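Sharing in case it's useful to others searching the archive later.

Someone asked me privately for the predicted structure of Alpha/beta hydrolase, so I'm posting the question and my answer publicly. Question first, with the sequence:
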Amino acid sequence: MMYRNFKTQAELDAQYNPIELGLDVPAYEKYYGINSDMVRQELPCQLNVPFGPTLAEHLDVFPAAQPDAPILVYIHGGYWFLGSSKDSSFVAKGLVEANVTVVVINYALCPKVTIDEIVRQSRSAIAWTYRHAESFGGNPHRIHVCGHSAGGHLTAMVMATDWENDYGLPNNIIKGGCVISGVFDLMPLPYTWLMPKIQLSWDQVLRNSPIYHIPEKAGSLIVAYGTEESSEFQRQSQEFFTAWKAKGLVGEYLPQLGKNHFTALDGFLDTDSPLCTAILRQIG
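And my answer, the predicted structure tokens:
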């Protein structure tokens, strides 16, 4: 066996490759791209704000109308080798309408950098947001984090950060998180089509699999996925949620009926959607 009950790469690719799953990836990219363009035109925003020393380390801020607003930091997906912050501006639509400031972060991509470095950049963006929140009207004591797919993985990793010892910040700076269709156990990925693109070593797999690094203390976590996703993506979320709860941590399970890996995100466009409603309830 390669991994669990999978004997061949083809079997694993059928679980982890959206094209093999029959999804029209370009159509979804176009849909969210159009909506992201519209959101940047309609909402006040500060674009390409640097948070680190490299050109890829920048973020986009969509401030709420009212001051001292809670903040949601969003981390985009793309299997760590695709996408940018500009592809995900659409996530600000429903949340800004509900008086939540949204920060969408950008990061360097594999194989130019490793997943280790992407995790570091994501953590750096959270630290920057905490330190600079008041400059864009946000409340540094009400930071939440959310991400989809690879961004779900990165969200889980930043929630496991030792903020006090590594950054000199309070360990509770993240008050809650939402992981959407994430990958929490990287063990199967070296056997898949992704390997040439993300070039994982086994020590990186162990170091960057959130299911092996669930913190002793953390804010509440929403684990969401689409019920039309592959069985492996569903299992990844289900087992991560179980492990999270086994630590005695607060969590909410949010299967989204009839959603696939990409439509699991369209709730961000509607403040009253189950996804936005759950996030807003968590933010309080």
